[in-house]
Amino acid sequence: MSNPYRSFTLILAAFVVFFGIALSFAAYFLISGQIVRDTSDITRSAVERHFSGLPQLSGLFGEGTAAASDGSAHAAHGQTRQDEHAGHAGMGGSAPATADAASDAAHEALKQVIRTHFDLYQIQEVQMYDRNGTIQFSYDRSRIHTPVADADRREFERVLASDDMLSEKQGSFLRLWIPIADASGHVVGIVEAKRDWSAQKDNILRISLTMALLTAAGMFALFFGLRQLFLRSSRIIERQTEELGDLLARIHRTYDESLQALSSALDSRDNETQGHSYRVTAYSWLLAKELGMRSDQMETLIRGALLHDVGKIGIPDAILRKEGPLDDMEWAIMRTHVSMGVHMLEHIDFLKPALEIVRCHHERWDGGGYPMGLSGEGIPLKARIFAICDSYDAMTSDRPYRSARTHEEAIAELRRCAGTQFCPTCIEAFQRLPKGTLEKVRRLSQQEMHNVSIEQFLPQVG
Description:
Blueprint: H1 4-53, H2 55-58, H3 65-69, H4 74-79, H5 81-91, H6 95-118, E1 123-130, E2 135-138, H7 150-162, E3 166-170, E4 173-181, E5 187-196, H8 198-269, H9 276-291, H10 295-306, H11 317-320, H12 328-345, H13 355-360, H14 381-395, H15 407-416, H16 424-431, H17 435-445, H18 454-461
Antiparallel strand pairs: 1-2, 1-5, 3-4, 4-5
């Protein structure tokens, strides 16, 4: 059997490690989620505020879109008209090239305005879509007037339909889809922004590591505290269990010693049966072992064998110690010792299992016994065992009116009565008991037994 202290320590350690890891991961995800939400909300607020506050952005999704993208720099166009004339005169008419230069300058000017404000929030990339999914502005001018990528179409339509921001982590960047509403609250466009959040990630990592260390310290303290509590409690419980076991053992010894004293007193009263209780108990114990009876059942058998004739305490001496045969009236009185014995013991809880021997040890296999006329398997096994042993001891003991029979004569008589008075299976088992062992029981029982308990006696015989 495994050591309970070691098992508890391993289980507790596994629980503490698992709980600590789970708590650390939960803290990391909670902190990360909260920082992502806060960063996203701050970024959205900044973008919306700049859209409402910067005139360069306010018309990007409305009537001023063309001006903001291809030709929003009317002022720049007026400023460059003289250059266009000069180009026509000196360069032979390069108007398209001049228009592209003007458009690049306008885009660059708008880009610088946006970056001046958005760089404060570590926004590295920007795409601004109208409701149709067409890019109206991007840091990369080549993407202007191109549709939203197929891979991003789902996110775009989701934000457009829900009027709510969408954020997702992509490595060191936080990708945001921010809806832009006009004065009436209708979404007129969507800004896709990639914000560098490496600093926030570093903060999350530092906070999570700190919490993990604190959690580990707390878990170790909890582990050692619970382990010490378990060890102290276990030792107290073990000590109390041992004390209770000792107390119960003493109580059982007191009970058994009382039974043995009562049995010895009965044997002393009946001169014909001196040592009888110990012998029939030993014979029954040997036969029960031969039949393979469980140890807890054998304990009940021993108690019942010791007390089988306890009811004879109520039988008058004139009948109990009569040297000759009993007449019918005397036999009727003698038979009452069974009911008197049951009445004496039936209110003692720990002796109730032994009552079946006291009540049934005079029943016969063929149903001709008393007091209930039980037969066959209806007679409890312990009573069947005891009946054989009681008869064997009676036949091999001297009586004033006859001499003891030999072992062989007693076995022959038991075999003759198998199937009528006795259980055939039990008779077969009894015949297998060695003659020397049975004779040893009788020899030991005739010695001084006042200071020998039944627990000391039985190991000597088998």
